[in-house]
Amino acid sequence: MLTVHAAQVQAQSNAAPQAAVSEAARAPALLSRQPQGQLLVDHLQLFEDPTRALSIEQVRTPAQEARFAYPDNPLVGRESDRVLWFKLQLRLANPADTSREWLLLVPTVSTHELRFYGPYDTTGKALAPPVTTGMRHPWSTRPAASEQMAWRFQLPDPGVYTVYFRVDSTFARIYAVSAWDTADYLQSTQDKRMFDGVSYGLLLGLLVYGLVLLLVFGEGIYLYFLLSCMCALMALAGFNGHVLRYLFPHWPTGAGIAYILAPALWAICKLQFGRKLLRLRHFAPRLDQVVRLMLIALGAAAVYALWGPHPLWMFRLVQLAVVVSTAVLLVGAVVAVRGRYWPAVLYCIGVALLFIGICAIIVASWGWIAWTPDQINVTQAALIAELVVFAVAMASRLRLMLRSEQALTARTQQLVEALGTDALTGIASRVGLEGPASIRIREGKPFSLMLLDLDGFKSVNDTHGHAAGDAVLVAVGQRLQRQVRQGDIVARLGGDEFAVLVAGRTSRETLADLALRLVKAGERPVDYEGRTLSVGLSLGIACHPDDGHTMPLLLRAADRAMYHCKQQRTGPSFAFASDLPASTSDRPPLSNAAATSA
Question: Coiled coil where (predicted)?
Fold first, then answer.
């Protein structure tokens, strides 16, 4: 990876005396092997070719040679759509390096076309044929197999040699050109490759994370996060030159389309994700309308980039839209935070990280600060950091939604119970049973209470799971409901306990017949996902007012009778409380339902 330090450039430009530095810069650059490359930008001469048609033969005429000039501040300047010609004079600092292979590195991957000419000796003879490469040409044209524009050359003796190169680019600028020993350059790229590998690995992990959330929950916000990660990965791969190298080595047009579209699509998906995460329609409707207008503008720019020419103003529009939309979403996040929507806090952090990273490269492209290749690494790290923070924000949103859903479920359960309905089975709940029973007791009306408990229900839960147990409870509740009259009440008291209120004074024979029907209906097998589930029933019967004048006493009496049935291995599966001894000293502990009521 080429490393150019702005401080180094600034130190060179401020060194005293200024005149001596300027004179040294105009002398041929002395090539010497330096592990971190030798910066040559101060030795560059250039001029702009407004015709875009000059050949190397025309450039080397006296009239055109006179146009070459040294820029005052080479690394500070606006990008522009133009053709620039550069000239560089070189000589070896060490005569022993005549056999060494050098690499002239132009740190850019976005150049449409770059042509290298020379080196020319003092007689004007070219020592090597021209080399043409760039984004408009296949990967095989790269002489050094480098993502950035690099050219191999040799100097056969310590004399002065002249190198020319022509840059045709939408983003043409003065580049931090450097010279490297080829082996040193290949070694230096390992850090960059490792950094890119870690970056792509993180983005792929975030892609998987977004895909899982999308498949599980199916919400649009997860789709936009997934698309943001995909477009960010494609944009970074384009900025680093990997799209041309690995995806479209033989189709440079495809690499160019990806390079242009990926940033715009990333910005669109990022805006949509921000709208959804921040709930702008709810918290800030006017800001939401502004973001929608930006989405339309970005979408139009993306379509134009796909089907029309690619002028620089379109890229400026995308850059400006990213900066403005980031600021707008930051304001929206602050509004959401004021509404106590806490995932917006994490969103603020992520947007702030990206804003800093984007400004580093955009401000340099506008010509406000010196440009260095390291700025793309800052932007790359900031973009990934933003997506990581966004992933955490989504987790926070999920936790908030889970809490809200749990609170809503609890509230719904309370309302359902308050209405006297059991949420699982749809029959009456404890409240739905005790209310009418209390009214009958208060009015002195007779009724009978049957308490039922499922035998073997625990083994169903343990063997087949709670979903199977719930299916048994629902089936039993529905079957019991079908066995009673319209005025009678079937209720689930909790767990695997049911109760039946038989209105009016009913004969013992009728109650016994009903009890048998209830037991047989409840014991019929239940089909669950191809499995047959079976339970038994034990039933106790208590009558008002003979077995108790209050609901707790009636439940206690029915519970004693039901427990008596459980202890009997043979005989009927029901018992009357009136048939049991009156003494309470030998009564077993109450079941959960009876104990709760008592």
Answer: none
Residues 6+ apart with CB under 8 A from 434: 551, 597
| Sequence letter at residue 184 | D
Residue 469 has pLDDT above 90, yes or no: yes
Question: Are 390 and 470 part of one and the same domain?
Answer: no
Q: How far is CA 441 from CA 32, 248, 483, 543, in A?
A: 107, 85, 24, 11
Burial tier of 409 (Cβ tally within 10 Å: 0-12, 13-18, 19+): exposed
- Burial code (b: 16+ CB inside 10 Å, e: under 16) for 29-47 equals bebebeeebbbbbbbbbbb
Q: Is residue 24 part of a domain?
A: yes
What stretches of 111-171 show up as alpha helix (H) in DSSP?
Answer: none
> Whose structure tokens read 């606006």?
78
Beta bridge partners of 178: 39, 105
Q: How many residues are recorded in the chain?
A: 598
Residue with tokens 């959330």: 213
Domain that residue 387 falls in:
219-408
Total-model pTM: 0.64
Is 376 within a domain? yes
Q: Per-residue confidence at 512, pLDDT binned at 50, 70, 90?
A: very high
Number of domains comprising the chain: 3
Instruction: Please identify which residue in the block is written with the tokens 């080595």.
Output: 249
How deeply is 542 buried, as exposed, middle or buried, from its count of CB atoms within 10 A (0-12, 13-18, 19+)?
A: buried
